[in-house]
Amino acid sequence: MSKEPDLWQAVIQLTREDADTATDWLTETNPDVLSVSAFEEIGGDYAVTVLLAEEPDRADFSALIEQALGHEPGFTLEPLENEDWVKRGLEDLKPVRAGRFHIHGSHDEPAPGGTHSLLIEAGEAFGTGQHPTTSGCLMALDDLLKRGVDGPVFDLGCGTGILSIAYASVTKLPVLGGDIDEPSVRFAKAAAEANGVGPLVDAVEATGFQHEAVREQAPFGLVMANVLAGPLISLAPDMRRFTRPGSYVILSGLLRHQSRAVEATYRGQGFVIGARYPLGEWMTLLLKR
Asked: Which residues bind S-adenosyl-L-methionine (predicted)?
């Protein structure tokens, strides 16, 4: 007897506007939804892929989408067969080059000469370098380090700690990371040790700047925040409060069409645009106060 599949995948073809609406709606209203991603296809439409913890009732799922969009689009629904996802993930996880940084796993070949090697394994935390937002942050950090930047440095929403590790590896200076997810904090500290910068990288469980260790180090000379557009907008007043004049912030986790709203919000807090790093549908911003 074959084992029932653990996961189900639905794919919905939508316009860009509907894709944004459906992504927000499905993430917020359905507890069985594990993840939602949207990718632009040739022609401008988007394929919205929904990963579900169990097989949904087709009629109920269709009604849920119709409730969000006001119409009923077609969709495909299929099981994902059981597989060794860790092994599959490592096979798919290829080395990434972002500026002078070479991000790789222990299963990869050594980094080429002239690069800064960052060893990041696949795990529970976000930030293996594969996502364009992480690559964009590393490119912005690389450009900034070439010019020179003063600390202290805060990695807000540090995930794997990849940005903290990158900064410490190049400068040999301390950096503080913070994340709302306790496993990510543990992962970041372990990753820092694996990269030989454990004594330089500290990480705390924190929401934004709301932690004693974070406030003690403020005002910061550099804040790196790879989160989402909504939280970045909400954080703008604190970003000004906990940085000093002449400081830099690297913002990512936002789609290109969201960048205008983020830029406008930060301009209102006294920041100016230093550089933009578009990668696919994603955008990373380098701002100076």
From this structure: 134, 157, 179, 226
